[in-house]
Amino acid sequence: MFGVNWKAAGLAFMLALPVGQVLASERAEQAWRMIDNGALVIDVRTTQEYADGHLPEARNIPLSDVGTGFHDIDKQQPIVVYCRSGGRAAMAMEALQKQGFTHVHNGGGLNEMQETQMNTGPLN
């Protein structure tokens, strides 16, 4: 009638919903719970990104080094990985799981984790 592409309009509406933010907050909250319980925090961004700012407790093992950078870490050690948006952290988590690490969590992005920590405070 008006030439409206209802499929595209429905998709646009769904994408506008804050579901991604809710899920993102949940993953960051879980990350902070793990960190409060002693998880190792790994920033998988580049060394330059890390130098520009990172979580105080984080070690930098860039995604390109995930294959070799964890050789001295116990495979049972809980680990939280994060990056800029969560994408590289997801790749790192998958690579670590393939290496036999059993307790790896994608905390998402740096800003997401920082905002979650500011909004919730210490989770312990």
UniProtKB/TrEMBL annotation:
* PROSITE patterns in the record: RHODANESE_3
The major lineage groups are: Bacteria, Pseudomonadati, Pseudomonadota, Gammaproteobacteria, Vibrionales
Highest taxon of the source? Bacteria
Rhodanese domain segment(s): 35-122
Q: What is this protein called?
A: Rhodanese-like domain-containing protein
Keywords on this record?
Signal
Q: Which PANTHER family has this protein been placed in?
A: FAD-DEPENDENT OXIDOREDUCTASE, PYRIDINE NUCLEOTIDE-DISULPHIDE OXIDOREDUCTASE
Among Gene3D superfamilies, the record links this protein to:
Rhodanese-like domain
SUPFAM superfamilies documented for this protein: Rhodanese/Cell cycle control phosphatase
First and last residue of the signal peptide: 1-24
